[in-house]
Design goal:
Helix content is about 55%, strand content about 10%. The protein has 15 helices and 9 strands. The strands form 2 sheets. It has a 6-stranded parallel β-sheet, with helices on both faces. The structure holds nicotinamide-adenine-dinucleotide and fe (ii) ion. The site of nicotinamide-adenine-dinucleotide has 33 residues, from helix 3, helix 6, strand 7, helix 7 and helix 11.
Length: about 400
């Protein structure tokens, strides 16, 4: 019954999708392209802007060149830098108040997925002042133009600069949920690889694996299109070729650039073709224990892919071809080799194969949250029952 409901819901979304108001951000690309951002604001008549970022970014002074350019262009700005990883409803409300008090006319999101998602949720709240953040949860609850939104990613992972999602945490219920609406796709995205040069090794690895998870989950799902499949395969190839190099040799601009592209492509893929159980389980681990999003995905992905079994054999074998492994082998063997290649990548990036500290007593609630996120929205290759998720949580926890 649930299966029929979920699959019918996904079918309707698939049919409606081409008629949805999809757009892609205007791109500023290349080294130092962030310095061209003030011109974009001026073109739009934005003279007073809220910059949403986090304390880590302000501390290292990564925004300084942009701030100088904003000053030169005569654009006023106010910085909100209290965004936490896994941004909260409190972050959104606090920053929204600053936006209103200062009379801002647009938002620059500067940072990783956390500041970008926080900025998207602020924008949603501004266009829907009578709805709370929790009331905006779900699909197509905003449906109104948002203020001009400029996304400047400084990690290469979430792809949030090109997606319709804002993922927000409710600290009271430990729930991490998404606001999904086409109006939240940023108007402009800046892909400046130099902003990612100083990304510490562990953040490079975790965020890079988040991008890989987007590409793989979108590819194996049941709502792909020729376009999203092409974004997925491009992203997977780029990540296999560049993530380890970006991790080992952070100042390699070319590797950083390719990872930034890969993350953007993977974002474009999953925003139309969705993610799956890896993400819904990952969101529960971030909601309950603040596990970084990319780390959770990296650990969970091989477990879930292996569990899907035959349902993903064909698509994983295709991805194995994309990265050139298992030539001439059977589909099953290729799929297994692809999963093993992900595990090898994790090992090379010093990512563990389990997450410490998951409490058995939290299983029932986490399973409920993960199922609620997945069903009916995500076109997963296989719908899993609660006891199957129970098994997966145990595997992720490292219980033999
Ligand atoms: N909206 C979407 O489509 C989407 C997709 C995937 C993930 N997400 C969400 O994004 C969030 C995770 O984002 P993230 O993985 O990019 O991490 P993040 O934004 O939480 O940043 C992690 C850390 O990296 C630091 N950092 C960022 N850029 C840096 C740089 N260039 N140099 C040095 N330090 C830097 C930050 O200060 C922070 O401490 C999660 O909440 C996740 O759920 C959203
Ligand atoms: Fe993600």
């Amino acid at each position: 019954m649930i299966k029929l409901y979920a699959r019918s819901y996904q079918r309707v979304l698939r049919i409606l999708s081409p008629a949805m108001p999809w757009r892609v951000p205007d791109l500023l690309e290349g080294e130092d392209s962030v310095l061209d951002l003030p011109t974009k604001l001026t073109e739009k008549g934005v003279k007073n802007v809220l910059i949403v970022t986090d304390a880590g970014i302000t501390k290292i002074g990564l925004m300084e060149p942009l701030l100088q350019k904003l000053n030169e262009a005569g654009i006023l700005y106010t910085i909100y830098d209290k965004t936490v990883p896994n941004p909260t409803i409190e972050n959104v409300e606090e920053a929204r108040e600053v936006y209103e008090i200062k009379g801002c006319e647009g938002i620059i999101a500067f940072g990783g997925g956390s500041p970008i998602d926080c900025a998207k949720a602020i924008a949603a709240r501004i266009s829907r002042p009578n709805k709370s953040v929790t009331q905006l949860k779900g699909v197509l609850k905003v449906r109104k133009k948002i203020p001009p939104l400029y996304a400047v990613p400084t990690t290469s992972g979430t792809g949030s600069e090109g997606t319709l999602a804002a993922v927000i945490s409710n600290k009271k219920t430990q729930e991490k949920f998404a606001i999904n609406d086409h109006s939240l796709i940023p108007h402009v995205a800046v892909l400046d690889p130099l902003l990612t040069i100083g990304l510490p090794k562990h953040i490079t690895s975790m965020t890079g694996m988040d991008a890989l998870t987007h590409a793989v989950e979108a590819y194996i799902g049941k709502s792909t299109t020729a376009e999203t499949r092409s974004y997925c395969t491009k992203a997977v190839k780029l990540i296999f070729e560049n993530l380890y190099e970006a991790y080992e040799n952070g100042s390699n601009v070319e590797a950083r650039k390719q990872m930034q592209q890969a993350s953007y492509f993977a974002g474009l893929a999953f925003t139309r073709s969705y993610v799956g159980y890896v993400h819904s389980i990952a969101h529960t681990l971030s909601g309950f224990y603040d596990v970084p999003h990319g780390l959770a995905n990296a650990v969970i992905m091989p477990h879930v892919l292996r569990y899907y079994g035959e349902a993903v054999q064909h698509s994983l074998a295709e991805l194995a071809d994309v990265v050139g492994i298992g030539k001439g082998e059977s589909l099953q063997r290729k799929a297994n080799l692809f999963i093993e290649a992900i595990e090898e990548m994790n090992a090379k990036l010093d990512i563990p194969n389990k997450i410490e500290g998951i409490l058995d007593q939290d299983f029932p609630k986490m399973i409920k949250h993960a199922q609620a996120e997945t069903i009916p929205l995500y076109p997963v290759p296989k719908l899993l029952k609660n006891d199957e998720l129970f098994y997966l949580y145990q595997a992720i926890q490292g219980t033999p």
